[in-house]
Amino acid sequence: MKILVLGGGGREHALVWKLKQSPRVEKIWCAPGNGGIAADAECVAIDAGDVGATVALAEKIQPDLTIVGPELPLVNGLTDAFRQRNWAVVGPPQQAAQLEGSKIFSKQFLERHGIPTAKMYGTYDSPAEVYDALSSVAWPVVIKADGLCAGKGVFLAPDFATAKNFVQRVMEKNELGPGGKRILLEQTLEGEELSFIILTDGKQYAPLVPTRDHKRVFDGNQGPNTGGMGAYSSDELLPDALRETIRSTIVEPTLRGLVADGIPYQGFLYIGLMLTKSGPKVLEFNCRLGDPEAQAILARMDFDLAEILSDVAAGHLDPSKLRWKPGSSACVVLTSGGYPGRFETGKKIEGLTSLDNITGVKVLHAGTRVISDTVVTNGGRVLGVTAVGETLEATLAFAYHAAAKIHFEGMHYRKDIGAHATPLRAAGD
Ligand code: AMP
């Protein structure tokens, strides 16, 4: 098989790394890829959100299968363009990608199908309407910009003044771009958060191993939100009873709802949940694998990813084929100093080769590039040091030992990934 992977972060490096292990795979391209992916695949410098350029690339290289990593190509209709041409592709159609691309679409979908979620106060097209509505909400209130806002569109406002300030920035100053044109207000939920990710062909589905990520930049969940500072996975994280509750009250009604709405969903579906006193409730959908969760999940994969994703594209997923390594995995993200604010790039990365042949550790690249044989930083999240092991404790120690061998100027990482791991339960169990 010849495979094209779209995207250029840690998630895509993890996909390329696993696909390359399949005896069926003859060649992999990645667009645009990054400095680490370039060692495992042929990178093509096109913008993954550019549907026209991607179609032209696929026409030229004729892949047997295309796998979409990030949300932008999905929201832009890439998979629809591929399916119209009868090209095998993994990723939901544009209509389904609105589950991620529009918070309002997703909330209306959840309400229409009676899937547990935070109560919505309303949706608003102008700041005046929001200020008016804010006079009759319970505090704190959750404010969500409707469209894609690079993770900055959700705000938990403790009072009217901070709520107004956020709405002004989003709707009046357009700080988040077109994603901030409409706003939704909803009730604040309390509990622990859990990411539940499935792979589906629209009929059958298989849950992936449970993971948790760490979004704040500093230890102890301090500092601003990021795209993800690390993640870990272990079976103990999710007790069987809670997994069954999530399957029956969230996952299956969601898949039935998609069928009822005539939306053929196919690919990864990430469900962000809050485990509240009255059971799990949906916070958000993402139409793709999360990152860095993808790195922790793929490290535990014990099946042929190329085979399974071909099955998904062809509409005959067999969930029993997804087997997982027992034990644990962890991913520690190394970032540029200053991230998620301003940071410098072009810093030489040292120590990578010392980790090349260590079984159980893989350094996945996110923001890197190669300049005349030297790997340098090229983004905020630079590397994901990913390890597998028997116990979570040993796995984390392994990942941190490896991370300490890498160095670049300004490098930062959290020292407490997975440190407070306790099995989750729906509060009130
Ligand atoms: P979202 O992109 O909708 O998942 O929101 C990002 C983050 O905001 C979530 O991971 C939660 O931490 C938080 N959040 C979103 N909606 C709510 C809610 N209704 N109640 C409490 N926290 C929320």
In terms of topology, how is this protein built?
Blueprint: E1 2-7, H1 10-20, E2 27-32, E3 42-43, H2 51-61, E4 65-68, H3 71-75, H4 78-84, E5 89-90, H5 94-101, H6 103-112, E6 120-124, H7 127-134, E7 141-145, E8 154-157, H8 160-172, E9 183-187, E10 192-200, E11 205-207, E12 211-218, E13 222-234, H9 240-260, E14 267-276, E15 279-286, H10 293-299, H11 305-314, E16 328-335, E17 361-365, E18 368-371, E19 374-377, E20 381-389, H12 392-403
Parallel strand pairs: 1-2, 1-4, 2-3, 4-5
Antiparallel strand pairs: 6-9, 7-8, 7-9, 10-11, 10-14, 12-13, 13-16, 14-15, 16-20, 17-20, 18-19
Bound molecules: adenosine monophosphate.
3D structure, described in words:
The chain is an alpha+beta fold. It is built from twelve helices and 20 strands. The chain has helices at residues 10-20, 51-61, 71-75, 78-84, 94-101, 103-112, 127-134, 160-172, 240-260, 293-299, 305-314, 392-403; strands spanning 2-7, 27-32, 42-43, 65-68, 89-90, 120-124, 141-145, 154-157, 183-187, 192-200, 205-207, 211-218, 222-234, 267-276, 279-286, 328-335, 361-365, 368-371, 374-377, 381-389. The protein has a five-stranded parallel beta sheet. Strands 12-13-16-20-17 form a five-stranded antiparallel beta sheet. Strand 1 (2-7), helix 1 (10-20) and strand 2 (27-32) form a beta-alpha-beta unit. Helix 1 (10-20) packs parallel to helix 10 (293-299), helix 5 packs across helix 6 (103-112) and helix 7 (127-134) runs antiparallel to helix 8 (160-172). It starts with a strand and ends in a 26-residue tail after the last helix. Bound molecules: adenosine monophosphate. Residues 118, 142, 144, 154, 156, 186, 188-189, 193, 272, 283-284 line the site of adenosine monophosphate.
